[in-house]
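In the laboratory, one determines a bound structure by crystallizing the protein with its ligand and collecting diffraction data. In a computational setting the workflow is compressed into a single prediction: the sequence and the ligand go in, and a structural description comes out. We illustrate the idea with fe (ii) ion.
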Amino acid sequence: MSGDLVVRNARLLDGRLVDLLAQDGRWTRIGESLAADGAHELEADGRLVTAPLVDCHLHLDASLTAGTPRWNESGTLIEGINVWGELKPSLTEQDVFDRAHEIVRWSVAQGTMFIRAHADVSGENEAMVRGLLRLRDEVADLCTIQVTAFPQDGIFAREGDDERLENALRLGVDCVGGIPHYEPTSELGLKEVHRVFELAKQYGRRVDVHCDETDDPNSRFLEVMADDTVKYGLGGRVTASHCTAMGSYEPYYSSKLHGFLKRAGINVVVNPFANSLIQGRLDVYPKRRGFAQLKELLAAGVNVSLGNDVIMDPWYSLGRADMVEAASLALHFTYMSGRDEIVEMLRCATERGAKTLAVEDEYGIEEGKPADLVVFDAPSAIEVMRLHPARRWVIRRGRVVAETTPATTTLLGEPVTFAPPL
Ligand code: FE2
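The predicted complex, in C-alpha coordinate form:
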Protein backbone atom coordinates (compact mmCIF):
# COMPACT_ATOMS: atom_id res chain seq x y z
CA MET A 1 0.00 0.00 0.00
CA SER A 2 1.29 3.47 -0.77
CA GLY A 3 0.60 6.67 1.13
CA ASP A 4 1.75 10.21 1.72
CA LEU A 5 3.24 9.73 5.18
CA VAL A 6 3.99 6.86 7.52
CA VAL A 7 4.93 7.24 11.18
CA ARG A 8 6.81 4.17 12.40
CA ASN A 9 6.87 2.71 15.89
CA ALA A 10 4.56 5.21 17.53
CA ARG A 11 3.44 4.53 21.11
CA LEU A 12 -0.27 5.11 21.66
CA LEU A 13 -1.70 6.19 25.02
CA ASP A 14 -3.02 2.64 25.53
CA GLY A 15 0.56 1.34 25.23
CA ARG A 16 0.32 -0.25 21.77
CA LEU A 17 3.25 0.28 19.39
CA VAL A 18 1.98 0.90 15.85
CA ASP A 19 2.73 2.32 12.43
CA LEU A 20 0.35 5.00 11.14
CA LEU A 21 -0.24 5.55 7.44
CA ALA A 22 -1.78 8.77 6.11
CA GLN A 23 -3.17 9.37 2.66
CA ASP A 24 -4.95 12.43 1.33
CA GLY A 25 -4.92 13.93 4.80
CA ARG A 26 -6.56 11.02 6.63
CA TRP A 27 -5.38 7.93 8.46
CA THR A 28 -5.84 5.00 6.11
CA ARG A 29 -4.08 2.23 8.04
CA ILE A 30 -3.03 1.83 11.66
CA GLY A 31 -1.25 -1.39 12.57
CA GLU A 32 1.99 -3.27 12.95
CA SER A 33 4.79 -3.25 10.34
CA LEU A 34 2.75 -1.61 7.60
CA ALA A 35 4.04 -1.69 4.02
CA ALA A 36 4.03 1.89 2.75
CA ASP A 37 5.80 2.22 -0.59
CA GLY A 38 6.62 5.76 -1.57
CA ALA A 39 5.45 7.36 1.65
CA HIS A 40 7.56 9.88 3.52
CA GLU A 41 8.73 8.05 6.65
CA LEU A 42 9.10 9.34 10.20
CA GLU A 43 10.74 7.05 12.78
CA ALA A 44 9.02 7.74 16.10
CA ASP A 45 11.24 5.14 17.79
CA GLY A 46 8.76 4.37 20.58
CA ARG A 47 7.85 7.99 21.33
CA LEU A 48 4.36 8.72 22.64
CA VAL A 49 1.89 10.03 20.08
CA THR A 50 -1.51 11.56 20.74
CA ALA A 51 -4.23 13.28 18.78
CA PRO A 52 -3.85 17.09 18.95
CA LEU A 53 -3.73 19.02 22.17
CA VAL A 54 -6.91 21.07 22.59
CA ASP A 55 -6.97 24.54 24.14
CA CYS A 56 -10.59 24.91 25.25
CA HIS A 57 -10.42 28.50 26.47
CA LEU A 58 -8.21 31.28 25.18
CA HIS A 59 -8.72 35.04 25.05
CA LEU A 60 -6.87 35.42 21.77
CA ASP A 61 -8.06 39.01 21.32
CA ALA A 62 -6.11 40.13 24.40
CA SER A 63 -2.99 37.98 23.96
CA LEU A 64 0.34 39.82 23.71
CA THR A 65 -1.00 43.12 25.03
CA ALA A 66 0.57 42.85 28.52
CA GLY A 67 1.81 46.24 29.74
CA THR A 68 -0.42 48.21 27.35
CA PRO A 69 -1.51 50.82 28.28
CA ARG A 70 -0.23 49.87 31.75
CA TRP A 71 0.62 46.81 33.83
CA ASN A 72 -1.84 45.09 36.13
CA GLU A 73 0.13 45.76 39.31
CA SER A 74 -2.36 44.24 41.76
CA GLY A 75 -2.79 41.04 39.74
CA THR A 76 -6.52 41.02 40.44
CA LEU A 77 -9.26 40.09 37.98
CA ILE A 78 -10.83 43.53 38.38
CA GLU A 79 -7.66 45.50 37.62
CA GLY A 80 -7.15 43.28 34.58
CA ILE A 81 -10.68 44.06 33.36
CA ASN A 82 -10.04 47.78 33.93
CA VAL A 83 -6.72 47.75 32.02
CA TRP A 84 -8.35 45.82 29.18
CA GLY A 85 -11.27 48.30 29.18
CA GLU A 86 -8.81 51.16 28.70
CA LEU A 87 -7.10 49.40 25.82
CA LYS A 88 -9.89 47.89 23.77
CA PRO A 89 -11.46 51.01 22.21
CA SER A 90 -8.18 51.60 20.35
CA LEU A 91 -7.76 48.07 18.95
CA THR A 92 -8.08 47.43 15.22
CA GLU A 93 -9.17 44.27 13.42
CA GLN A 94 -5.68 43.94 11.93
CA ASP A 95 -3.98 44.32 15.30
CA VAL A 96 -6.22 41.66 16.85
CA PHE A 97 -5.62 39.37 13.87
CA ASP A 98 -1.83 39.76 13.98
CA ARG A 99 -1.45 39.10 17.71
CA ALA A 100 -3.88 36.18 17.69
CA HIS A 101 -2.18 34.73 14.61
CA GLU A 102 1.14 34.73 16.41
CA ILE A 103 -0.36 32.80 19.34
CA VAL A 104 -1.84 30.27 16.90
CA ARG A 105 1.67 29.78 15.51
CA TRP A 106 3.02 29.12 19.03
CA SER A 107 0.12 26.77 19.74
CA VAL A 108 0.40 24.63 16.62
CA ALA A 109 4.18 24.42 16.97
CA GLN A 110 3.53 22.75 20.34
CA GLY A 111 0.81 20.42 19.09
CA THR A 112 -2.36 22.40 19.83
CA MET A 113 -4.52 22.22 16.69
CA PHE A 114 -7.93 22.95 18.22
CA ILE A 115 -8.66 26.21 20.06
CA ARG A 116 -11.85 27.73 21.45
CA ALA A 117 -11.20 31.48 21.42
CA HIS A 118 -13.14 34.22 23.19
CA ALA A 119 -13.82 37.56 21.50
CA ASP A 120 -14.93 40.41 23.74
CA VAL A 121 -18.17 41.84 22.33
CA SER A 122 -18.86 44.40 25.07
CA GLY A 123 -18.64 48.01 23.95
CA GLU A 124 -18.80 49.54 20.52
CA ASN A 125 -15.54 48.28 19.00
CA GLU A 126 -16.16 45.19 16.82
CA ALA A 127 -12.42 44.72 16.09
CA MET A 128 -12.06 41.79 18.50
CA VAL A 129 -14.83 39.64 17.03
CA ARG A 130 -14.09 40.59 13.44
CA GLY A 131 -10.36 39.95 13.86
CA LEU A 132 -10.89 36.50 15.39
CA LEU A 133 -13.54 35.45 12.86
CA ARG A 134 -11.14 36.34 10.04
CA LEU A 135 -8.38 34.40 11.78
CA ARG A 136 -10.64 31.35 12.23
CA ASP A 137 -11.34 31.24 8.52
CA GLU A 138 -7.80 31.99 7.31
CA VAL A 139 -5.91 29.46 9.48
CA ALA A 140 -8.44 26.61 9.24
CA ASP A 141 -5.99 24.36 7.37
CA LEU A 142 -3.52 24.65 10.25
CA CYS A 143 -5.74 24.95 13.31
CA THR A 144 -9.46 24.51 14.00
CA ILE A 145 -10.72 27.56 15.87
CA GLN A 146 -14.14 28.13 17.40
CA VAL A 147 -14.96 31.73 18.32
CA THR A 148 -17.12 32.53 21.34
CA ALA A 149 -18.87 35.89 21.68
CA PHE A 150 -17.84 36.90 25.18
CA PRO A 151 -19.53 39.90 26.85
CA GLN A 152 -16.70 40.84 29.23
CA ASP A 153 -18.73 43.61 30.89
CA GLY A 154 -22.02 41.68 31.06
CA ILE A 155 -25.01 42.45 28.86
CA PHE A 156 -27.26 44.43 31.20
CA ALA A 157 -24.86 46.96 32.77
CA ARG A 158 -24.55 49.13 29.67
CA GLU A 159 -27.09 50.14 27.06
CA GLY A 160 -26.63 48.23 23.81
CA ASP A 161 -24.44 45.34 25.02
CA ASP A 162 -27.32 42.85 24.84
CA GLU A 163 -27.84 43.77 21.20
CA ARG A 164 -24.09 43.58 20.53
CA LEU A 165 -24.00 39.99 21.81
CA GLU A 166 -26.75 39.02 19.38
CA ASN A 167 -25.05 40.92 16.58
CA ALA A 168 -21.91 38.79 17.08
CA LEU A 169 -24.07 35.72 16.40
CA ARG A 170 -25.21 37.33 13.15
CA LEU A 171 -21.55 37.91 12.29
CA GLY A 172 -20.98 34.15 12.59
CA VAL A 173 -19.47 33.21 15.95
CA ASP A 174 -19.62 29.55 16.91
CA CYS A 175 -20.59 29.92 20.57
CA VAL A 176 -22.53 32.36 22.69
CA GLY A 177 -20.85 33.35 25.95
CA GLY A 178 -21.78 35.07 29.17
CA ILE A 179 -20.52 36.25 32.53
CA PRO A 180 -23.53 36.11 34.89
CA HIS A 181 -21.59 36.62 38.14
CA TYR A 182 -20.38 39.99 36.80
CA GLU A 183 -23.85 41.45 36.20
CA PRO A 184 -24.85 44.16 38.71
CA THR A 185 -27.31 41.91 40.60
CA SER A 186 -28.03 38.19 41.00
CA GLU A 187 -31.39 38.72 39.29
CA LEU A 188 -29.67 40.18 36.24
CA GLY A 189 -27.18 37.31 36.33
CA LEU A 190 -30.06 34.81 36.18
CA LYS A 191 -31.65 36.81 33.38
CA GLU A 192 -28.34 36.75 31.50
CA VAL A 193 -28.03 32.95 31.70
CA HIS A 194 -31.55 32.52 30.30
CA ARG A 195 -30.83 35.05 27.54
CA VAL A 196 -27.65 33.17 26.53
CA PHE A 197 -29.58 29.90 26.20
CA GLU A 198 -32.39 31.57 24.26
CA LEU A 199 -29.85 32.95 21.79
CA ALA A 200 -28.07 29.60 21.48
CA LYS A 201 -31.35 27.88 20.69
CA GLN A 202 -32.51 30.59 18.31
CA TYR A 203 -29.27 30.72 16.31
CA GLY A 204 -28.25 27.06 16.64
CA ARG A 205 -24.96 27.78 18.40
CA ARG A 206 -23.03 26.25 21.29
CA VAL A 207 -22.84 27.81 24.74
CA ASP A 208 -19.61 28.66 26.59
CA VAL A 209 -20.18 30.82 29.65
CA HIS A 210 -17.64 32.23 32.11
CA CYS A 211 -19.53 30.92 35.12
CA ASP A 212 -18.91 31.70 38.78
CA GLU A 213 -15.35 32.92 38.21
CA THR A 214 -15.12 34.17 41.78
CA ASP A 215 -14.28 32.92 45.27
CA ASP A 216 -17.80 33.73 46.45
CA PRO A 217 -19.45 30.45 47.55
CA ASN A 218 -22.84 32.08 47.01
CA SER A 219 -22.19 32.45 43.29
CA ARG A 220 -24.27 29.53 41.97
CA PHE A 221 -25.13 30.22 38.35
CA LEU A 222 -23.76 26.82 37.32
CA GLU A 223 -26.88 25.07 38.63
CA VAL A 224 -28.96 27.43 36.48
CA MET A 225 -26.87 26.54 33.44
CA ALA A 226 -27.45 22.85 34.17
CA ASP A 227 -31.19 23.40 34.42
CA ASP A 228 -31.33 25.43 31.19
CA THR A 229 -29.18 22.85 29.37
CA VAL A 230 -31.85 20.24 30.09
CA LYS A 231 -34.79 22.59 29.37
CA TYR A 232 -33.37 23.73 26.03
CA GLY A 233 -32.17 20.22 25.05
CA LEU A 234 -28.57 21.35 24.58
CA GLY A 235 -26.73 18.51 26.36
CA GLY A 236 -23.18 18.09 25.01
CA ARG A 237 -23.21 21.58 23.48
CA VAL A 238 -22.79 23.56 26.69
CA THR A 239 -19.57 24.49 28.48
CA ALA A 240 -19.09 26.25 31.80
CA SER A 241 -15.66 27.83 32.08
CA HIS A 242 -13.60 28.65 35.17
CA CYS A 243 -16.29 27.77 37.79
CA THR A 244 -13.81 28.69 40.51
CA ALA A 245 -16.50 29.31 43.14
CA MET A 246 -16.74 25.53 43.18
CA GLY A 247 -13.48 25.59 45.11
CA SER A 248 -15.45 27.18 47.97
CA TYR A 249 -18.63 25.05 47.88
CA GLU A 250 -19.27 22.82 50.86
CA PRO A 251 -19.56 19.04 50.38
CA TYR A 252 -23.34 18.65 50.43
CA TYR A 253 -23.99 21.28 47.79
CA SER A 254 -21.02 20.03 45.74
CA SER A 255 -22.33 16.49 45.55
CA LYS A 256 -25.78 17.72 44.51
CA LEU A 257 -24.21 19.92 41.83
CA HIS A 258 -22.06 17.09 40.44
CA GLY A 259 -25.22 15.09 39.80
CA PHE A 260 -26.90 18.02 38.06
CA LEU A 261 -23.89 18.59 35.80
CA LYS A 262 -23.60 14.91 34.88
CA ARG A 263 -27.30 14.67 34.09
CA ALA A 264 -27.21 17.83 31.97
CA GLY A 265 -24.09 16.76 30.05
CA ILE A 266 -22.26 20.02 30.70
CA ASN A 267 -18.53 20.33 30.01
CA VAL A 268 -16.41 22.15 32.58
CA VAL A 269 -13.20 23.95 31.60
CA VAL A 270 -10.43 24.64 34.11
CA ASN A 271 -7.92 27.40 33.35
CA PRO A 272 -4.93 26.69 35.59
CA PHE A 273 -2.82 29.80 34.95
CA ALA A 274 -5.52 32.38 35.67
CA ASN A 275 -7.27 30.32 38.34
CA SER A 276 -4.10 29.80 40.38
CA LEU A 277 -2.99 33.43 40.20
CA ILE A 278 -6.29 35.32 40.34
CA GLN A 279 -8.37 33.34 42.83
CA GLY A 280 -7.76 33.59 46.55
CA ARG A 281 -6.20 37.05 46.13
CA LEU A 282 -8.42 38.67 48.72
CA ASP A 283 -8.09 35.86 51.27
CA VAL A 284 -6.03 36.17 54.41
CA TYR A 285 -4.22 32.97 55.33
CA PRO A 286 -5.29 30.21 54.99
CA LYS A 287 -5.90 31.00 51.31
CA ARG A 288 -8.22 29.02 49.06
CA ARG A 289 -6.99 27.39 45.86
CA GLY A 290 -9.84 28.65 43.71
CA PHE A 291 -10.13 25.73 41.28
CA ALA A 292 -13.20 23.92 40.02
CA GLN A 293 -13.40 20.45 41.57
CA LEU A 294 -11.69 18.77 38.63
CA LYS A 295 -10.87 15.46 40.28
CA GLU A 296 -14.30 15.06 41.85
CA LEU A 297 -16.09 16.07 38.65
CA LEU A 298 -14.21 13.41 36.67
CA ALA A 299 -15.12 10.85 39.32
CA ALA A 300 -18.77 11.90 38.98
CA GLY A 301 -18.64 11.36 35.19
CA VAL A 302 -18.51 15.02 34.16
CA ASN A 303 -16.26 15.91 31.22
CA VAL A 304 -13.50 18.33 32.22
CA SER A 305 -10.89 19.88 29.96
CA LEU A 306 -8.35 22.68 30.07
CA GLY A 307 -7.45 26.06 28.59
CA ASN A 308 -4.54 28.50 28.58
CA ASP A 309 -7.04 31.36 29.01
CA VAL A 310 -4.46 34.14 29.29
CA ILE A 311 -1.14 34.64 27.52
CA MET A 312 0.85 37.85 28.04
CA ASP A 313 -2.29 39.92 28.57
CA PRO A 314 -3.76 42.25 31.24
CA TRP A 315 -4.47 39.29 33.54
CA TYR A 316 -1.24 37.31 33.12
CA SER A 317 2.06 38.65 31.87
CA LEU A 318 3.63 35.21 31.31
CA GLY A 319 2.60 32.19 29.23
CA ARG A 320 3.78 30.43 26.08
CA ALA A 321 0.67 28.61 24.81
CA ASP A 322 1.76 25.15 25.95
CA MET A 323 -1.13 22.90 26.97
CA VAL A 324 1.27 20.43 28.62
CA GLU A 325 2.34 23.16 31.03
CA ALA A 326 -1.33 23.99 31.67
CA ALA A 327 -2.09 20.32 32.39
CA SER A 328 0.90 20.04 34.69
CA LEU A 329 -0.20 23.05 36.70
CA ALA A 330 -3.76 21.71 36.97
CA LEU A 331 -2.38 18.37 38.12
CA HIS A 332 -0.72 20.04 41.10
CA PHE A 333 -3.58 22.33 42.09
CA THR A 334 -6.23 19.60 41.88
CA TYR A 335 -4.25 16.78 43.54
CA MET A 336 -4.30 14.56 40.43
CA SER A 337 -1.04 12.84 41.37
CA GLY A 338 -1.99 9.16 41.18
CA ARG A 339 -0.36 7.25 38.30
CA ASP A 340 -3.64 6.83 36.44
CA GLU A 341 -4.65 10.39 37.29
CA ILE A 342 -1.49 11.80 35.71
CA VAL A 343 -2.40 10.00 32.49
CA GLU A 344 -5.98 11.21 32.78
CA MET A 345 -4.73 14.80 33.01
CA LEU A 346 -3.13 14.44 29.59
CA ARG A 347 -6.51 13.21 28.34
CA CYS A 348 -8.03 16.43 29.76
CA ALA A 349 -5.67 18.32 27.45
CA THR A 350 -6.47 16.13 24.43
CA GLU A 351 -9.49 13.81 24.07
CA ARG A 352 -11.63 15.48 26.71
CA GLY A 353 -10.97 18.83 25.07
CA ALA A 354 -12.24 17.45 21.77
CA LYS A 355 -15.40 16.36 23.55
CA THR A 356 -15.86 19.87 24.99
CA LEU A 357 -15.54 21.38 21.52
CA ALA A 358 -17.83 18.63 20.14
CA VAL A 359 -15.35 17.87 17.34
CA GLU A 360 -15.00 14.15 18.04
CA ASP A 361 -16.10 13.18 14.51
CA GLU A 362 -12.93 14.83 13.17
CA TYR A 363 -10.63 13.98 16.06
CA GLY A 364 -8.68 10.91 17.14
CA ILE A 365 -6.11 8.40 15.94
CA GLU A 366 -8.48 6.17 13.97
CA GLU A 367 -8.65 5.01 10.37
CA GLY A 368 -10.76 7.44 8.35
CA LYS A 369 -10.19 10.42 10.63
CA PRO A 370 -7.97 13.42 9.80
CA ALA A 371 -4.28 12.59 10.11
CA ASP A 372 -3.48 15.00 12.93
CA LEU A 373 -0.79 13.88 15.37
CA VAL A 374 1.59 15.06 18.07
CA VAL A 375 4.84 13.12 18.52
CA PHE A 376 6.26 13.88 21.98
CA ASP A 377 9.96 13.45 22.69
CA ALA A 378 9.09 11.10 25.56
CA PRO A 379 7.89 7.48 25.77
CA SER A 380 4.78 7.79 27.96
CA ALA A 381 2.11 10.14 29.27
CA ILE A 382 3.74 10.21 32.69
CA GLU A 383 7.07 11.23 31.18
CA VAL A 384 5.28 13.91 29.13
CA MET A 385 3.77 15.34 32.30
CA ARG A 386 7.09 15.11 34.17
CA LEU A 387 9.41 16.51 31.50
CA HIS A 388 7.24 18.81 29.35
CA PRO A 389 9.24 17.50 26.41
CA ALA A 390 9.66 18.95 22.94
CA ARG A 391 7.00 18.12 20.41
CA ARG A 392 9.31 16.28 18.02
CA TRP A 393 6.84 16.47 15.14
CA VAL A 394 3.40 18.01 14.73
CA ILE A 395 1.34 16.59 11.88
CA ARG A 396 -1.78 18.26 10.45
CA ARG A 397 -3.84 16.50 7.78
CA GLY A 398 -0.96 14.15 6.99
CA ARG A 399 1.66 16.89 6.63
CA VAL A 400 4.50 17.67 9.04
CA VAL A 401 3.82 21.30 9.97
CA ALA A 402 6.17 21.72 12.93
CA GLU A 403 9.39 20.09 13.99
CA THR A 404 11.49 20.60 17.12
CA THR A 405 15.02 19.36 17.70
CA PRO A 406 15.22 18.53 21.42
CA ALA A 407 17.82 20.38 23.47
CA THR A 408 20.85 18.45 24.72
CA THR A 409 22.53 19.10 28.05
CA THR A 410 25.99 18.11 29.24
CA LEU A 411 27.61 18.33 32.66
CA LEU A 412 31.41 18.23 32.74
CA GLY A 413 31.24 16.95 29.21
CA GLU A 414 28.88 14.06 30.04
CA PRO A 415 25.25 14.00 28.81
CA VAL A 416 22.46 14.68 31.31
CA THR A 417 19.18 13.05 30.19
CA PHE A 418 16.90 13.72 33.20
CA ALA A 419 15.99 10.01 33.16
CA PRO A 420 16.67 7.58 36.02
CA PRO A 421 19.76 5.37 35.52
CA LEU A 422 18.92 2.03 33.87
FE1 FE2 B 1 -11.63 33.39 30.52
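Residues 57, 59, 210, 241, 309 surround fe (ii) ion (CB under 6 Å). Keep in mind that any predicted model is a hypothesis to be tested, not a measurement.
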